[in-house]
Specification:
- The protein is an alpha/beta fold.
- The chain folds into two domains: 2-173, 3-Layer(aba) Sandwich (Rossmann fold); 186-274, Pantoate--beta-alanine Ligase, Chain: A,domain 2, CATH 3.30.1300.
- 38% of the residues lie in helices and 21% in strands.
- The chain has ten helices and nine strands.
- The chain has helices spanning 7-19, 35-47, 75-85, 95-98, 117-120, 124-139, 151-163, 193-198, 201-214, 220-232, and strands at residues 2-4, 24-29, 50-55, 89-91, 143-147, 169-173, 236-245, 258-267, 270-279.
- It has a six-stranded parallel beta sheet with strand order 1-4-3-2-5-6, sandwiched between helices.
- Helix 3 (75-85) links the parallel strand 3 (50-55) and strand 4.
- It is globular.
- The relative contact order is 0.13.
- It binds adenosine monophosphate.
- Adenosine monophosphate binds next to helix 2 and strand 5.
Length: 280
């Protein structure tokens, strides 16, 4: 696996692949890689001939109260995982490569960013959309792969690519989970052993909410209240638990058919998110 760290070196490394007519797949990450990231690589390899992965802890998507300095950085282990998985090119730019000292241009997707994670993390999605736009412009992949685990993020990127006519196909990859149901996440590393045992409860609550909806429940506010009581009876602090329309992530109405249950909650130091799509 070739590793490059500058825009110029990236351009040169991609030239040969492009000249050979290869279909380029791109997997952006913040590192501290796990099986979820590798499932994106595998999906990319299934439809592309040349897979580029980036590792960049993006400062503009962290809030002032969020500890970017303590975000886990495990580059050597990440490189081994990507090499083993057969990634062709790893791009590891510095903050200086990605942002100017006085950044004047931002990509902001309105509407779908205001609720859920956007409500508790102001400017988070502006940082995500801006950095992903920069990466898509630099790599110019045929397809880019994102996890459905970050459902709202995937919706924001899909919308940005549509609105800005970015010629790249965005592919959503199903959530990779531990055998007990917990969605794999870099943030799981913040859990104590006791919290790790409790952590699958978030997914279990989402599954129970789905079962209630499948059984005919349409009072979605009651489902939210039930989930809050259930989780906060234990060690959790709920951020949101919401039955939404898939189309715009607004709270679902009884007539809506294509739904997604979105949830985020704190367990100790870890803010965990999860979701499930369903049709009625
Ligand atoms: P991150 O490094 O956390 O920014 O994530 C990089 C990419 O991996 C994003 O597209 C995430 O949605 C995706 N991802 C993270 N966890 C999982 C998972 N458990 N299953 C599938 N994709 C994931």
């Amino acid at each position: 696996m070739l590793q490059v760290s500058t825009r110029q070196a990236l351009r040169e490394a991609l030239q040969a692949a492009r000249a050979a007519g290869k279909r380029i797949g791109f997997v952006p990450t913040m590192g501290n890689l796990h099986g979820g990231h590798i499932s994106l690589v595998t999906a990319a390899q299934q439809s592309c001939d040349f897979v580029v992965c980036s590792i960049f802890v993006n400062p503009t998507q962290f809030g002032l109260n969020e500890d970017i300095d303590n975000y886990p950085r495990t580059l050597d282990a990440d490189k081994s995982l990507l090499d083993e998985a057969g990634v062709d090119l790893l791009f590891t730019p510095s903050v200086h490569d990605m942002y100017s000292d006085l950044e004047l241009t931002w990509v902001e997707v309105k509407g779908i960013t205001e609720r859920h994670c956007g409500a508790s993390r102001p400017n988070h999605f502006r940082g995500v959309a801006t950095v992903v736009c920069k990466f898509l412009n630099m790599v110019q992949p045929d397809q880019a792969f994102f996890g459905r685990k970050d459902f709202q993020q995937l919706a924001v990127i899909q919308r940005m690519v549509e609105d800005l006519f970015i010629p790249c196909d965005i592919v959503g990859v199903p959530t990779a989970r531990a055998p007990d149901g917990l969605a794999l996440s870099s943030r799981n590393g913040y859990l104590t052993p006791e919290e790790r045992v409790q952590a699958p409860q978030l997914h279990a609550c989402i599954l129970e909410a789905k079962a209630r909806i499948d059984a005919g429940e349409m009072d979605y506010a009651a489902i939210t209240a039930w989930a809050k009581a259930e989780l906060e009876a234990g060690p959790w602090k709920l951020d949101y638990f919401s039955v939404c329309r898939q189309a715009d992530l607004a709270p679902a109405e009884p007539d809506d058919r294509e739904l997604v249950i979105l949830a985020a909650a704190w367990l100790g130091r870890a803010r965990l998110i999860d979701n499930l799509i369903l049709s009625r």
